[in-house]
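hey
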């Protein structure tokens, strides 16, 4: 928006990122404290999630359902967390396919610890998704500038 009259500025506007809004564009208005808060929050959430999973595992041990099922649960959470980490990490650099995202929803829910850890590690270097948003915004700005600049050449004669 324009500072003088509150009208929208010409051209593309940056897409907001969760927890950061549009502060990622110029790294202003508390960008660094937000990054620190997101890193600490995602790590704390991952630690709490691991505690909950530990309690669930202990519940299975108390129920004495067998070592095979306990091992199966550990392997399932490890694989799902690794896949969720990779999917979330890739989502920071390119837009995920909506159909694939919908088909992986259950897997990503089971592997939520991996997603939280991916969010933590990405927030150590930038706002999660900042690089993708910046590339898209820069491309949109270039397209806008290219479409609004006049091309040099012969002027058309008016009849």
């Amino acid at each position: 928006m324009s500072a003088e009259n509150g009208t929208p500025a010409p051209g593309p506007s940056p897409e907001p990122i969760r927890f950061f809004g549009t502060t990622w564009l110029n790294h202003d208005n508390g960008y660094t404290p937000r990054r620190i808060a997101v890193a600490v929050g995602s790590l704390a959430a991952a630690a709490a999630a691991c505690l909950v999973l530990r309690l669930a595992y202990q519940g299975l041990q108390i129920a004495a359902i067998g070592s095979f099922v306990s091992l199966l649960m550990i392997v399932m959470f490890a694989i799902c967390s690794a896949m969720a980490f990779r999917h979330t990490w890739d989502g920071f650099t390119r837009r995920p396919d909506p159909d694939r995202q919908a088909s992986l929803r259950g897997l990503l829910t089971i592997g939520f610890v991996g997603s939280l850890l991916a969010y933590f590690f990405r927030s150590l270097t930038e706002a999660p998704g900042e690089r993708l948003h910046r590339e898209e915004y820069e491309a949109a700005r270039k397209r806008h500038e290219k479409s609004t600049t006049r091309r040099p050449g012969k002027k058309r004669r008016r009849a």
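The chain has six helices and no strands. Residues 41 and 92 are 18 Å apart (CA to CA).
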